[in-house]
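Ticket #4471: structure export looks truncated?
Reporter: QA, pipeline team
Priority: medium

Steps to reproduce: submit the single chain below to the structure queue and open the exported record.
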Amino acid sequence: MHQFRLVALLGVSLSALSGQIAHAQTAAPVSVQENEAAPVTDAATVADEGNEIVVTGTRTAGRTRLDSVSPVDVLSGASLQRQGTTELAAALSTVAPSIDFPRPSANDGTDSIRPATLRGLSPDQTLVLINGIRGHSSALLNTNGVVGRGSAAVDLNTIPTVALDRIEVLRDGASAQYGSDAIAGVVNLRLREARSGGGAQVNYGFYDTQVDTARGSRHVTGENAVTVSAWQGLGFGSDGFLTITGEYLKRQPTNRADFDPRVNPTRVTGRYGDPEVEQGTGFLNAGTSLTDTWSVYGWLGYQERDSKSAAFPRVAATTASAAQLAVLARAGYAGGFLPIINTKTRDLNSAIGVRGQVGGFDVDLSGSYGRNRIGFRTLGSANYAFGTATPRDFDDGALTYDQYVVGLDFTRRFDVFQSLNVAFGVEGRREGYKIEAGELASYGTPPEGTVTGIPAGTAVSLVSPGAQGFGGFSLGNEIKRSRRNGSIYADLEAQVTTRLLVGVAGRAEDYSDFGSTATGKLSARYEFADWFALRATASTGFRAPSLQQQYFTQTAQVVQNGVPIETGTFPSVSPVAQALGGLELDAEKSTNLSAGTVIRAGGFDLTVDAYRIHIRNQIGLSENIQASFSPQVAAILAPFNVSAARFFINGLASTTKGIDVVGHYRLRTATAGSFDLTVAGNLNDAKVTRVPVNTAVALSPTPTLFARSRILTLEDGTPQTKVTGTIDWSLDRIGALARVTYYGNVNQPGTVATADVFTGRHAITDLEVRYGEAKGAQIGLGVSNLFDVYPDRIITANNSTGVLGFPYYSPFGFNGRYLYVRAGFNW
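Actual output as written to the record:
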């Protein structure tokens, strides 16, 4: 009831305020057929809104955001850059209430490659496009206890905001239009296109915050970040363009760990917060006409990211094993050590295509290739099994994912009804996934007789092998797999009468690994008057199991009585998993229903859209099934020398219901300037309706496959309520922005109810003032989280190590007040 009272309050506020969808929007990107450069606007100006042409969710040319059948947010590049962060995912979550971007810490590689969610669903249930072409996912599979556990999603932060003209967010199921993953919706990143002009910019910011944890307080000033970016538009021929973009980011780590009660005197021993990052990104986007009717286009983007996050500290005073204590003392870690997890990411985005006309049809033939490679290292750590000969730094191996996509699309408008737009096409995709092993010391034990520094009489089996903090991938974990899929679709959109718009779409896909699937979508929009319309959609969707979910393997070994015993994550079709009942993974399926209204009058527009998303056969990562659970499990695992195993399973089901409300009012005055008032909110309620309790093998008693913490993460891991209110004012060369975002309570669940950690309900206030000219110097001064708000701190009962100062499920992070300056020059 609390959420629905907020809906009513939000509606009243919108009507009184007259507010719209978020956040400064720009006109459609320049076509390769046009001669003009992309506009360089005054730094104080907010681009005109209300008549934006969208290309996401419709294949009919000229459709505007408010005329579309499905809800589409159009977010300009300027609105993404006018805030403290230069991370795309963080900036997007600030201006789009339906998008959440938690900042996990102390969770291995997920600290560096953080997933975003749409409408509270899994990160891999949102399709990401670049200029309308499918983007590739990260090689990382999130296997820790975080939001998005078990998913391998697109890393939005591989695309710099300065390279973007705008982003279109389709808040509707769209598998029938775009294929796998579009269960929650679609995020379409539209690259900047320009024949001339350019700009350079430096962003510098630092934290000034009071950190009040459960065991103490401290003031932090510093932990700075600097971003240097530039872009240049170049013209050639009659209409050719080449837009070059570059960005460099250097960010110091943050630390919001609590005081460690295990050491005397108590002090902060952990590092809990954002990782240290050094990152460079370059993008090229180009296009030109070939003939009067044919043109060519393409882009190339590359990023290298070096990220360092921390594992839990190894405190000597609490080390249980005498062998481990000896290693610490003799290897120079007498007081313990803090393992650093170093991920080095190389990401490639590329595409090339031609557009033209054949037989009255607009034709688009494209091919793209994307690749993501993540190399892992553990620094400043130890492998206890190696004794005093342990290395300090370890090469842990690497993960690689790549994707080829070829698409051929046809579109034509016919004079049927008032108009009929017919689109159809085919797409082929090849995906590859590879795991490379690390060095022996990162995961294993030394050769027989080479262990040094372990006290006499201590069995090597008592010393856990592998680098502390993050164990490497072993030779047995190495894998290389690929698959192919082909699809065909048809998409019809008819303006039946002046008032009635109807759409029908269907898609069939065939995968080389799990088989075929088909999806469909019906949509309609009826305009009762120029100022009022209703719209609705009904669709089915699917998400193919990722190669990462099918084949990810990471195990650790302990030698017992001379026999290596494994534990870890296994593919569902591995002999170990099959013995426990593992099966080949199948596609997730969804049924999406939505209904909404569009109201507009003068400078005011309001959209309200309700939705229901039912997902069945959902994939989840099981808990560890341990040999110690029962004699039956022990007997099953014994032939494989495995003590515990987990793997992915189909069978979860969930229903998500919610309402998106977006309102905006633009007020122009002759003397006081322009005012843009925005209120946007998302109310979201997810319930898990089915949980598998058995694998294909009957086990008695039955081990828990999905713990309460996994279920509650799906239900309560993202805010059920998020409301953003923004005032953006501009007058000539000056401007100012004020934004308040309210976040509902989020549960970071524990194994039992008493271990649950709640973020609380909080409002975050951001302010910025700016000055600039369309061509000339520009400067902005701002503060994110003006009032230094934190999520509710973690109580001492749930924080025995003192590392976890605040819940990492927090939808707005836990870093506190951030001050920044942005200076640049446009030409």
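Status: closed, not a bug. The export was complete when the record was re-opened. Leaving a note from the reviewer for reference: Residues 2-826 form a domain with the Maltoporin; Chain A fold (CATH 2.40.170.20).
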